[in-house]
Write a structure and sequence with these properties.
Length: 122
Amino acid sequence: QVQLVESGGGLVQPGGSLRLSCVASGFSLDFFAMSWFRQAPGKEREFVAHITSGGVPEVVGGRFTISRENAKNMVYLRMKDLTPEATDVYCCTCRLRSGGYRFTDHFGYDYWGQGTQVTGPS
């Protein structure tokens, strides 16, 4: 059974940073790309970062860094210089089926974690 579980969210001070973690189970991370999205209540999921199976990252803006640790079946999202606009639920996601997809589009993914709440400085 495929499962993704995020952790590491919380309340952040002005200019602070966080590292979010996502642990995957039920499949081996080695062969799959992973992504992070964010979602505010009542809004559509918004792309944040993507990392290929080979470790090539794509991120939005300059405040995010995505990385992976295949030996632990984990992917990370580091966030820095946080502002109030960072407040959202952050979810990791993966696509296990074959075929092309647009990694910035949340419809292309198969499995999602429950998310972890990040609350930026007020």
